[in-house]
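During the reporting period the student researcher (J.K.) took over the structure-prediction task from the postdoctoral fellow and processed the backlog of single-chain submissions. One of the processed entries is reproduced below for the supervisory committee.
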Amino acid sequence: MVEERARYSLVVEMENAKSIDWDEIGIGLKALAREIVAVTDLGLARPKVVISHGGHESDADALLHKITAEAPQLGQVSDLVFTAFPGGRYYDLKNNGVLATDGSIVILTDSDVVPEPGWLSALLKPFEDPKIICVNGYTYLSHDDFFSRTFALIWFFPMAHGDGRFASKRAMNANNVGFRREWIVSHPFPKHNGFKVSCTLLMRELLREGHKIHNVNARVYHYSPRGWRFFYWRALVTGRDADRKFVALNSAGRTQRVAKSFSRWFTMSWRTTRRIVGHARETGMPPWQIPFSLIVGQAFYALAFWGQFSFAAGIVRDEIEIVPDYVGHS
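J.K. obtained the following structure tokens:
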């Protein structure tokens, strides 16, 4: 375990709280409190937990009231701090929250994930090695019905079990990751119009400097996306973000981008088929649902293709991605 003098802090962003209910947020915060107790019992100091939200400073009292009602344990085992970034998007809240921390290690998590027992100690332990800058956890989607099982199979997170090959290649999880504070303060998530692009850009920066991402089995589950409106919007923005990543990492040429949209459509269509057919049993999906799951999965990546192609071809303008009002409670 990390030496006692090496204090740690946690940042919980509240942007994703807009898409789930407060009783679900409470489950995650109670689990967070349990994890803090577990490492405190091992000798670590009481941490600061930064609640980073996109409202105004005056909203802190209302947030504290809700958190206390749902998870009173959290305020008992940590020092709660609230920081506001009015109108801030997901990565704005991450960056703003990091600035309010005081530990030499910063753990980033989200309001819509729930840690499993042992999560926090698994994230902190590798930092005993002073050369380690970034420790990346294991995030998977929860599932309990047809659509959540389908999302678990086609999503960019590995599944909870039986997905070792995919899990070994997982990218940085901004909702389940730890950094040396000195590094992440000097390397904030880059500003970008994309919805979930900044973590890819930060990962590239980390690797370019010669650091490695240390993957550990620090597990949290993420609530599954909900609703057809979210399905439609998230598929399109997944495609647009794929083009943004291609531009940032490979080429800004329009011909190459359009070609990539077609090759990615083929790749993701094949991946979707392979994962649904090969792993449906592990999610508890009945065999008769598999054909319908394939239809949903293929529809998602057909929409993602259109999002990527239309963006690469210049049909759609590059605008800041925010969750639109019509999506509502996802």
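The committee noted the following: The domain at 8-222 is CATH 3.90.550.10 (Spore Coat Polysaccharide Biosynthesis Protein SpsA; Chain A).
J.K. will present the remaining backlog at the next meeting.
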